[in-house]
Amino acid sequence: MKKTKISCALCAILFFLSLSLEAQSIERKVLTWEQRSVNIGAVLEEKGEVETEFFGVNLNQDSLWITDVFAECGCTTVDFTKDTLLQDKIASIKVKFNPDHRGGDFAKQIIVRTNHDIYGDTLILEGTNIPFPEDLKTAYPYRKGDLGFRLSAINMGEVISNEPKLKYVEVFNFGTDTLSLYGEQEGLQEYLFASLEPEILSPGQRGLLLLTYDGAKKNDLGYFEENISLKLQDDTEIDLKLMAVVFEFFQPVPKSMEKIVPRIGLSEIDVDLREVASTRKVSKNIVITNMGEENLVIRKIATNCDCVEVDLSSSEISASQRAELNFTFDPKGRKGIDHKHITIFSNDPINPVRTIVVKSTIK
User: Fold this and answer.
1) SS3 letters across 183-243
2) Where are the annotated coiled coils located (predicted)?
3) Hey, what long-range contacts does 28-31 have (CB within 8 A, 24 or more apart)?
4) What are phi and psi of 297, to 5 degrees?
5) How many CA atoms lie within 13 A of 320 on its CB side?
6) C-alpha dist (Å) from residue 120 to 42, 98, 115, 265
7) Using CA atoms, how far apart are residues 88 and 61, in angstroms rounded to an integer?
8) How far apart are the first and last CA of the chain?
9) Given its phi and psi angles, is residue 48 left (phi above 0), alpha (psi -120 to 50 degrees) or beta?
């Protein structure tokens, strides 16, 4: 009896091992996707379902067909090509997203399996879901003419110089007439582009103001707070406050290049001036060193207060050389614990932005 049980157990083990080895021996052959991630942008709840499409080509010699497609949640439904895909044939995955009351950014996974891929390939559907508010006046309290906004200013956040940043801003037409943007926004800065979706906003309708900020055309770095003016079709203008922080883009640095590229070194990043009389200006030197082999270029030095003045001995620093940054702090009209920031933008691709904190207690 014991021998029979042992034999059965061994057979079972061998059977499952054979299945495991068979699974491991299957070579994964997947579709090559045009895009693995699709961003459908801002989705207004009242607009209903939004549809997009993924395309994949079979670059394998063997024929493929899609066996299963799984969506992460019930808010996403899929339809897919069910035909056999010979080499170089294209498959389609149609995805519909149904917005619900849960607002905010989303990233939904879609798993695609084929006859030669039991593990599944992952696609991502991204976007921002914007539910319809229950109380419109409370949701859009800031008025610019008949247009209602959620906030008094538009914050673009971080803008990287390699790619324009798109911002979706909710607006609501509280007026009795249609609203639309004038075709040519001549008064708008050259690094900004604005459009309205839909192009014509009916009375009592919600829409999106699309603002695009081009960091490369801005040709400057750091934090910016500025006023912009948008002209409407009826020749009225709306003034808006816009905020953004622009950074330079750098490609990732290989390990082998870390000692060659420009590298910024600072003698101090946390400066404590201790007790300072409000009637006396205080100056101090910071040494900037280039620890790389290529020339270090200081792109810009910015402070968060007009009370701090800076002077740099040289904006380009050779390998192993240094420059002196002299700053002067004027505490006039201030009292108590104080913190000021000096931000240095350079061509160091690993640490392109360095901040010096200047602390003091003003008497």
Assistant:
1) CCCCCCCCCEEEEEECCCECCCCEEEEEEEECHHHHCCCEEEEEEEEEEECCCCEEEEEEE
2) none
3) 28/116, 28/117, 28/119, 29/60, 29/62, 29/64, 29/114, 29/116, 29/117, 30/114, 30/116, 30/117, 30/121, 31/56, 31/57, 31/58, 31/64, 31/85, 31/91, 31/112, 31/114, 31/121
4) -115, 125
5) 0
6) 28, 24, 10, 47
7) 9
8) 94
9) left
What is the C-alpha to C-alpha distance for residues 173 and 192, in angstroms, rounded to an integer?
Answer: 23
Q: Which residue type occupies 350? A: I
Q: What is the pLDDT of residues 29-50, one digit of tens each?
A: 899 999 999 999 999 999 889 9
Answer whether 242's CB lies under 8 Å from 154's CB: yes
In single-letter form, the type of residue at position 25 comes to S
125-174 pLDDT, tens digit per residue, is 999 999 999 999 999 999 999 999 999 999 999 999 999 999 999 999 99
Cβ atoms of 312 and 325 within 8 Å: the answer is yes
Parallel/antiparallel/unpaired status of strands 237-247 and 153-160: parallel
pLDDT of 16: 44
Considering only CA atoms, which of 42, 45, 41 is closest in space to residue 133? Answer: 45
Q: Stretch 209-216: mean pLDDT, rounded?
A: 97
Q: Give the range among 10-14, 140-144, 210-214, 334-338 with minimum mean pLDDT.
A: 10-14
Q: Of all residues in the chain, what percent are helix, strand and coil, respectively (each to 5)? A: 10, 50, 35
Structural domains of the chain, with CATH: 32-130 (2.60.40.10), 136-247 (2.60.40.10), 255-362 (2.60.40.10)
Instruction: Give the rounded percent of residues in the chain with a pLDDT score beyond 90.
Output: 85
Instruction: Name the least confident of 71-75, 162-166, 350-354.
Output: 71-75
Cβ atoms of residues 334 and 362 within 8 Å: yes
Specify the range with the lowest mean pLDDT, choosing from 4-18, 174-188, 217-231. Answer: 4-18
The pTM for the full model equals 0.83
Question: CB–CB of 213/244 below 8 Å?
Answer: yes
For residue 256, CA distances in Å to 249, 265, 351, 352 come to: 20, 19, 17, 19
